[in-house]
Write a structure and sequence with these properties.
This protein is of the alpha+beta class. It contains 25 helices and twelve strands. The chain has a domain of 108 residues: Heat Shock Protein 90. The strands form three sheets. Strands 1-2-3-5-4 form a five-stranded mixed beta sheet, covered by helices on one side. Strands 8-9-10-12-11 form a five-stranded mixed beta sheet. Strands 6-7 form a two-stranded antiparallel sheet. Keywords: ATP-binding, Kinase, Membrane, Nucleotide-binding, Phosphoprotein, Transferase, Transmembrane, Transmembrane helix, Two-component regulatory system.
Length: 782
Amino acid sequence: METIRNWLLPLLLAAGQGVLLWPGVYPDGTPGPLALAAVGCALAVETAALGWRRTAPVRSLAGTLAAGVLGGFAWPDGYVGLGPLIALYSVAVRCPVPVTVRALAAVVGVDWVGAAVTEGLRPPLLSTMALSLGTYVLCAGLGEARRQWLAGRLTAARRLAGAERARLLAGDQERRRLARELHDVSAHHLTSVVVTADAALRLRDDRPELSAEALAFAERTGTETLTALQRLVGLLRDTGGPDHRPMSGRIEELVAGFGRLGRPVTARIPDGLAGPAAEAVHGIVREALTNALRYAPGAAARVDVRRADGLLELTVENAPPRVPAQGAGGLGAGRGVAGMRERAASVGGELAAGPTPEGGWRVRATLPDAAARRPEETGWRRDVLREQRFADPALMLAAMLLPVACVAALTEDWAGAARRAVLPELLLVCGLLVVHALPLLWRRRAPWAVFGAVLATAWAGPVAVLAVPLPSHVAQFLVAGTLVETLAGYAVAAYGPGAGHTWPAPVVATLGTAGAVTALACADGMVAGERAGPADAVLLSFLLSVVLAPVFTAVWGAGLLVRRRRVRAVAYDDFAFASSMWQADRAAEAERQRLAATLREAVLTHTRALVGAARRGELAEVADTARAALAAMREMLRGLADGGDGGPGGPLAPSPSAADLDALCRALRSAGREVRLRGLPEAARGLPPSTQVSVYRIVEAALGAGDPGPARVTLRRRRGTLRITVTGVRLAIAGPVAERLRVQVAAGEGRIVCEPAGRLRVSLPAGAPGAPVQEVSPSPYA
């Protein structure tokens, strides 16, 4: 199908040009044998060049220019040469604006040089140059408008693909987040109890007063743990957004709590910390100080948070331990640095941890400072209906040049003296045509204002006829500016508020244009060289209205169709994005409910027992119960990891690959559907991970559309391209499934063709896998 699209138009153009070569078809006759051979060669070069306009547009343009020069010199009167126009449009669609501008300059330069050589430096050359410039500028502008629209669609497709990926990974990410929360809440409190109780048990013979302090601390900390876990349960049931209140005070309270455990901790915290980055700072400080408490008991610690250039720079450093850590092994969940690294990465930051030269440990994190950012736009989408950089100026320039070229062409046959006699008037007419087209520059931003300005400037012609006055044979050229009214009417329909609010546009355009042309024709009291009265003006206005009404109505309808198509596309993007995010929220909510259902049995029971033992004064039972609570916490983390295949710090749910297609087809066959899979091992070997996931998701979506009949999946890899053909999926070639497939294929930078027979053809690039991600150095805390 793609091959047919590439070659159909060039072959049709070649066939049309070949018809002119048939004897007796062209009025001036066919060229001679040598010229005929040159024309045939030019046709072959142009056809071949246009066949590559989608993959190599600049080279295609160069080939069509060469073919146009050859054919134009071989047969100046009969060779059409539309190839440069089509190739320039393809360049504008597929290349950035600077490349398009250079290509436009090259095409216009070649055309002007060719016109100067064939026609000579005569007055007709001016009209030819203006006409070619206007045509090529219009062609480039239309191509740029198409490029902007496709860029917006690609951006929407990529964003939707990101939402789909977020939906698929929502459960895994929520499990990781909940694992961090559970680890932070329980490990921070319970580790302190274990360390304090063990120290009191070791020193109870020498310092018996420590036992009472340890029991009081265990009771207080156990109560705080219960409160924190109950708060976590409440957060699991709360589906609201994140808390953006300042967290500087909470971080200071956290640091002060560690100071109460007997270790010197200094801190410098700026005011006004808020948002996700501040939450990450709080979690990293808590984890770093907890690790220091485990592995460096009694050592001094320092917490430093600074703001610099829109970033938060966090440093948590502890001195070497005063005494060897006893009983610390096995207290943690084995993910200290990994958890801090994940927390920093979740807000777009980086974290590094390692030993200091003095023998201590330092944690450094760089996080984006939300408070220092400029307010961002609330909407994610560009306004694809109005945003253009090159298309509108190009269209305005074309609307200026084409009427001016018409004026120059119509005055070519005038005698030199007659032309010089009315030269000021001709220049005035050209100036009025330019002013008439100038408002089109803002047609997307303010279509109604542009529409009114265009209709108002149309009446400048009759005023000029009366004020200058302009001769009738010169004033008639102002009618060429009617093209601008059609463009303004189209802009109202395409970029206005909809049919219900823009329906007066064709009526107003018809009456305004008919009235302006009638006033222009009757301004000097003459119509077609004869005296005209009021009745003649009314009749002329009526006839013009009858002629113009269908034109403006058709233009207005075309604008409405374009607007409806684009608005529906954008609306679908919004709906699909919202649907994916809703499903992601539901998946995360399911994980929260699963944790809330098991949290009490896993940790709360042991924590309540710890508080009871502390109140009864049983210090040994306090230490044992605290260790049991930590063991239950680790078991809880393993339960979260059981939702996938990895540990808390690793990938919890590995993405499917192309190799899993065999299992997918077996599952469908066991469900009663006949599905055949061909070419899997050879095609999937060595594919990048992202392509592996794309292949699986595409085939899964196609086979899951709901077709009951047999299906066949064929994979073939050739020349760096993976081709996927799925047959027997009529329900997947249209509707929501087809839209989702297009999004997935666009995210993988591929192409998809949906055939009416129920066949899907997908092409994906099968490049080399990406470079591995560099990990931070291992930590003795992990």
